[in-house]
Write the structure tokens for this entry.
Amino acid sequence: MPGGGHIEIDAISKWYGEQQVLHEVSLDIAAGEFFSLLGPSGCGK
């Protein structure tokens, strides 16, 4: 991939009403890496 690039998420949190579902999650995906997010259908991926 010319110029490279990456995806970076730093300390993200997510709430649904009063239920916290993510707490300060960080992620760094470099150019050329593969990433999969797995979970049951309907879980909000």
User: Anything to note?
Assistant: The radius of gyration is 14 Å.
